[in-house]
Input
Amino acid sequence: MVGAAYAAVPLYTWFCKTTGFGGTTQVSEKAPDHVLDRALTIRFDSNVAPGLPWKFVAEQNEIRVRIGEVATVRYKVINEAAREIAGQASYNVSPPTVGAYFSKINCFCFTEQRLKAGETREMTVVFYVDPSLVKDSDQADLNTITLSYTFYRLRELDQPVAEAPKKNSSRL
Output
C-alpha cells in the first residue's frame, strides 16, 4: 500500500500528460506537417493565486487559428511587490477533452519565473491544435478552446539572517 501511494502521483501525472485528461496539454518539439482549413477560436484566461502580488494578462483575449497552424501569444506579468518573488504557472485547456490535441512547443509555464521588485516581463507561449482532432467525432462541434493559466507563488527557503557583529568585551 505504501508503494502504491508513493507511485500514485507520478502515475497520475504521466496518465494526464499522455491522455490529456482533465485538460492537461501536450508538449511537442515541432509543428505538424500540415494545416487544415478548419479554424478554431482560442481564448486566453490568466489568473494569479491569492498571496502572489503579480498582475498577469494576455495581450489578446482570443485569436482565431487553423488546426495545425502554429500560433504565438504574448502575456505580460508585473511584480507589484517591493521585493523579488518566484512563481510558476499551472495550465489546462477547456473543454477538458481537447487536452490530448492541444500541443505546446514552448511556454513560460515550463519553468519557474523570478521577477525583481516592480519588474515587468513579456512571456510567450507557442502552440498548435493537432490535426488528429478532426478524426475524433466527439470534437465535431468544437469551435472554441480556452487556454487557462494560474500563477502560483513558489515557496522560498528562508534566507539566513546575518549574525550581529560581536561586541568587544574588553572595552566594557
